[in-house]
Amino acid sequence: MKYMLMIHQVDSPTPLDPAAWATLSADEQQAIYASYKAINETPGVTPGSGLQPPETATTVRVVDGKTITTDGPFVDTKELNVTANGTNQAAADAFLDFITKEVAPLIESRFRAAKTDRVISGSSLGGLFAIAAAYKAPGFFAGHIAISPAAGWDHGALGKLDAAWARDHKALPARMFISHGSIEYPAFREPIVAFQKQLDGRHYRGLGLQTWTMEGLDHTGVKGDGYVRGLMWVWKPKKPAGPSGLTKAMQQQGE
C-alpha cells in the first residue's frame, strides 16, 4: 500500500517568490531545505514535485449538468462575483442591489446613520466587490476600502470594468483605499499593482485614491492594518481640526 504526503505551506515564503523568500534569514532557509531533504531521504519515500501556488489554479465544477471553470481556487464565493461565471450570471449585481435598496435603508431608518458617510469594505474577493461597487452604484458609498482585492479575477475583469467606465465618464465620486501585502504571491499581487496604476492614471474628478503596500505581510495578514488605514483615509475629511478630545483633556490635566 502507498500513501501520498501533501505539504501545504499556505502563504509561507518559498523559493517560488524570491522577494518573500529573501525575508527569511539564511538559517531559516537552510532549516526548510533540511526538512524537505530529511523527508525525501526517508526510506520508502519517493521524492515528488512541488505544486504551483493556489492562485494559478483553475477550479472545475459541474452545475446543473454544465461544466464551469473558474480562474483561481475560488468555489463557494464565485456566484457573488462581478462577472458572469455559471448559471447565476454575475449575482454580485443582485447582492449590491439588495445592499443599496434594502440593507442600507433599513439601517438608516432605525439607527443614527448618515447617508453621506456610507463605506463599503472587503478583502480579497470582497475587496473586488468593494471596488466594483464604485462603478456599479456610483455615489451611493462615500468610501471604498479594498484589502488585497482579487484584481486578477476572470482575466482582469476589474480593469475592464474601469476601462468601460473611463470611455464615457471623467468623474468617479468616492474616496478609495486599495492595499496589498508586499509578500503576497506575485500572481495575486501584480494584478493589484497594475490596477492601482491604471486607476491612478485616470485622474477622475472627485476620486480620492490612496494605495498602500503593507511591508512584510502576506494575504492572510493584511486585514487588521488594512481596515484601520482604510477607515482613516475614507473618513479623513471628517476628522475635526486641531487636537482630539483626549489630547485636550490630557493637556488640561498637565496644566
Secondary-structure map:
Elements: H1 18-21, H2 26-40, E1 58-63, E2 66-71, H3 92-110, E3 119-123, H4 125-136, E4 143-147, H5 153-168, E5 171-181, H6 186-202, E6 205-214, H7 223-234, H8 245-254
Parallel strand pairs: 3-4, 4-5, 5-6
Antiparallel strand pairs: 1-2
Describe the 3D structure.
There is one protein chain. By secondary structure, this protein is an alpha/beta fold. The protein folds into two domains: 1-51, no CATH class; 89-238, 3-Layer(aba) Sandwich (Rossmann fold), CATH 3.40.50.1820. The protein has eight helices and six strands. The longest helix is centred in the middle third of the chain and has 19 residues, at 92-110.
Name its key features.
2 domains, Rossmann fold, 255 residues, 4-stranded parallel sheet
Distance, first to last CA: 80 Å
**Number of helices, where a helix is a run of at least 4 consecutive DSSP H or I residues:** 8
For the record, what CATH class of the largest domain applies?
Answer: Alpha Beta
Choose one word for the global shape. globular
Characterize the largest beta sheet: strand count, sense, and whether it forms a barrel: 4 strands, parallel
Low-confidence stretches: 75-80, 84-89
SSE-based structural type: alpha/beta
What's the name of the CATH homologous superfamily of the largest domain?
Answer: Alpha/Beta hydrolase fold, catalytic domain
What fold name goes in the CATH topology slot of the largest domain?
Rossmann fold
Strand order of the largest sheet: 3-4-5-6
Q: H/E series, N to C?
A: HHEEHEHEHEHEHH
What percent of residues are in strands?
Answer: 15-25%
Radius of gyration: 22 Å
Query: Averaging pLDDT over every residue, what do you get?
Result: 85
CATH architecture of the largest domain: 3-Layer(aba) Sandwich
- Number of separate structural domains: 2
Number of E-type strands: 6
